[in-house]
Structure prediction request, 80 residues.
Amino acid sequence: MGTSRHYWGSPAGDVAVVILSSDALNAMSQDDKLIDLNTERAKRVHDIKEKRLNEVRQAFEQAMPLGKTKKKSKNKPKKR
Prediction:
């Protein structure tokens, strides 16, 4: 039976060490309700950055609106 050490750091800077047996690790990995905090944080950070990007994009479009693009001619240029 193997053991694993997991280090947990609180926002206050405290660190706790949790020693889990391999049975406990297997039970945790099979739990459907287990939440991966790193993945959830990455999603939240991505959403915050995406929201900020959209705000900056909208502000830029209001300050400098893009003109309508001209359609390219489908005809080949004439030879001279």
User: Anything to note?
Assistant: The chain is about 45% helix and 20% strand. The longest helix spans residues 37-63. The helical segments are 22-30, 37-63. The chain has two domains: 1-31, 32-63.
